[in-house]
Specification:
- The chain has a single domain (about 5-270), classed as TPP-binding domain (Rossmann fold).
- The chain has 14 helices and 9 strands.
- It has helices at about 5-15, 30-35, 45-50, 55-60, 60-65, 70-85, 90-100, 115-120, 165-170, 190-195, 195-205, 220-230, 245-250, 260-274, and strands at about 25, 105-110, 125-130, 130-140, 150, 180-185, 210-215, 235-240, 255-260.
- Helix 8 links the parallel strand 2 (about 105-110) and strand 3.
- The mean pLDDT is about 90.
- The structure holds adenosine-5-diphosphoribose.
- Adenosine-5-diphosphoribose binds next to helix 2 and helix 14.
Length: about 270
């Protein structure tokens, strides 16, 4: 169970030992599953459960926020509550070790907004949070990328009750401006200033080896990153208990699919080079 073949072990060790080899990791919700955070498209995933009145994917749009800000906030606050108590797992910790080992040769691109890579100890300048980070909020209707820490709401909110006024007031700044979660919504586009998308793409263009971890590959920039590395002749290693088009693409382009949890496979990869 969960073995790494000798061929792959050899390729991995050679890549890590080669001072010219650039290695990047691209993570999705799967890496945080073992920290107790639901994925998006799994059985009890966020995009399946939703809120009282709307389908879940509607919640994550500017349009919905403009019309029903408190309902959208309510949904996010309960997600944030879950993230707050979540702790990094062995998969996150293995990527911290990898950064320590590789230094300048490592960069981490994450679709996750739970902030667990930073909590685990990866350096902020090496982590590109291309979908944002729910530990922060910013003024809605402003292009100013001023990030403020998310208030520390301590209680889980009842989804069937309206958002308490005291909570609402914490989601506005002193001038009464409405704040929004610092996340990229479905009807928005990537940008460098808020989401470091150009940096992520540049990392992909320079990468010799890409680890894709716990993602179904449903969003556009991760798909471009995968294809960019493959088209430049880089090696792809996908880690996922399920088969996805990312794992298929990895195999077709001469790479590998480690079929299992990242909390098991990432520490195993690190053991090979530690
Ligand atoms: N280890 C590794 N992978 C896992 C694990 C695990 N322990 N558990 C589940 N997975 C895999 C699932 O098999 C699935 O392929 O994680 C993947 C999670 O996929 P999604 O729920 O689609 O999450 P993700 O790919 O991160 O979604 C991408 O979509 O809606 C947007 O903004 C949202 O960032 C998100 C993006």
């Amino acid at each position: 169970m969960h073995q790494i073949s000798e061929t792959l072990a050899g390729i991995w060790k050679t890549a890590v030992d080669d001072p010219d080899c650039q290695i990047i990791a691209l993570t999705g919700a799967g890496i945080s599953a073992e920290s107790g955070i639901p994925t998006f498209r799994g059985e009890d995933g966020y995009w399946k459960i939703g809120s009282m009145n709307y389908t879940p994917m509607e919640m994550a749009t500017v349009e919905k926020f403009r019309n029903y800000p408190w309902e959208v906030w309510h949904w996010y606050l309960n997600r944030i509550y879950k993230h707050r108590s979540a702790q990094p797992n062995d998969g996150h910790r293995a990527l911290v070790e990898l950064e320590k080992l590789l230094g300048e040769r490592f960069q981490l691109i994450t679709q996750n907004v739970d902030g667990l890579h930073l909590k685990a100890g990866n350096s902020p300048e090496k982590v590109y949070e291309i979908h944002g980070n729910l530990n922060y909020m910013r003024i809605f209707d402003s292009s100013r990328p001023n990030l403020l820490p998310m208030p520390n709401f301590v209680e889980e909110l009842d989804p069937n009750e309206p958002l308490p006024e005291a909570v609402k007031s914490e989601l506005q700044d002193e001038a009464g401006n409405l704040m929004r979660p610092h996340v990229l919504w479905f009807d928005e586009i990537y940008n460098e200033e808020l989401y470091r998308s150009e940096s992520a793409l540049k990392a992909a263009q320079e990468a010799d080896l890409l680890l894709t971890i716990g993602t179904t590959g449903a969003t556009s920039l991760p798909a471009v990153i995968l294809k960019t590395v493959a088209q430049n002749g880089g090696t792809i290693i996908d880690i996922n208990p399920e088969v996805t088009w990312f794992s298929d693409y990895a195999m077709i382009s001469g790479g590998y699919h480690l079929k299992g949890p990242s909390g098991v496979f990432l520490p195993k990869l690190m053991k090979l080079v530690g």
